[in-house]
Amino acid sequence: MLSGTIPHQMSYLSSLQVLDLAQNNLSGRIPPSLKNFTAMANATKAMENTVIFDRSAVISKSADVSFPVVVKGRKEDYTTTLSLVVVFDLSCNRFSGEIPVETMDLVGLQSLNLSGNQLTGSIPNNVGRMAHLETLDLSSNHLIGAIPTGITLLSSLSSLNLSYNNLSGAIPSGKQLQTLTDTSIYAGNPDLCGSPLPVKCPADEPPQQSPRAGVETRIDDSDMFELYLGMGVGYVVGLWGTCALFLINKSWRIAYFCFFDDVADKLFAAKERLRRWMCPRLQG
């Protein structure tokens, strides 16, 4: 079992395509200089002389060998197609600190496994640059913050594991990401929300009316009904009360109709005076 830190001299292995240091006792930070793995940063993948760094040996593919590689959680033996495999596996160690953003420059990677460490910080926003990535495992660390939307750009991604971190916020939606519907991918992150998890994000939930607002609405409706009822009853009572008063008191009834007759006569006289005043002026 290996221990200690990764020496910076390892970055000189420019032809390295498979780095497997899983299940050791390595610690410290992941060196940013590992971005100098030219073969891993080569999107075409195929190299004439593939170099493999395993926990047990450094092997050149120029030799006729069969080499086991763990991809998508399965160990498979590669021989003639090994030159097409690009793997970066530092899982099950004691690495700490943040994931170097320079790691995302290894755009030829097919599998990136940093699970089972003590990594902190957030997932780099430029993770979407790794267009050939098929497997991404960052589980069982101490990562925080939101899942970057750049992860939706990983069109080749078929295996994802972000479980048991401290991630939060909405799970991004994207064409490829929507095909990964296994909720265990996000297990152990209680502050995550959105599909495929059953927990809805606050922005997706319809606004709920507070109980007090409902009571106030019912009170307002009741008050309006009582107002209209009072107005109707008042109008009926007032109308019939006036009619009953005129029926009972003859002198009031005569005075009432005389008053309206007098008003009608005055209006007619005013109209006639106006007509006589306007006619000569209109004719002239």
TrEMBL record:
Keywords annotated in UniProt: Cell membrane, Glycoprotein, Leucine-rich repeat, Membrane, Repeat, Signal, Transmembrane, Transmembrane helix
- SUPFAM superfamilies listed in its UniProt record: L domain-like
The source's domain of life comes to Eukaryota
Keyword set includes Membrane: yes
Report TM segments.
227-248
Indicate how the chain sits in the lipid bilayer. Single-pass type I membrane protein
Coiled coil, from the record: none
Q: Which GO terms describe its cellular component?
A: plasma membrane
Kindly name one Pfam family recorded for this protein.
LRR_4
Q: Where in the cell is it found?
A: Cell membrane
Q: Which InterPro entries match?
A: Leu-rich_rpt (IPR001611), Leu-rich_rpt_4 (IPR025875), Leu-rich_rpt_typical-subtyp (IPR003591), LRR_dom_sf (IPR032675), RLP23-like (IPR046956)
Task: Output the PANTHER family linked to this UniProt entry.
Answer: LRR RECEPTOR-LIKE KINASE, RECEPTOR LIKE PROTEIN 30-LIKE
The UniProt family comment states: Belongs to the RLP family.
Q: What is this protein called?
A: Leucine-rich repeat-containing N-terminal plant-type domain-containing protein
Protein source organism: Asparagus officinalis
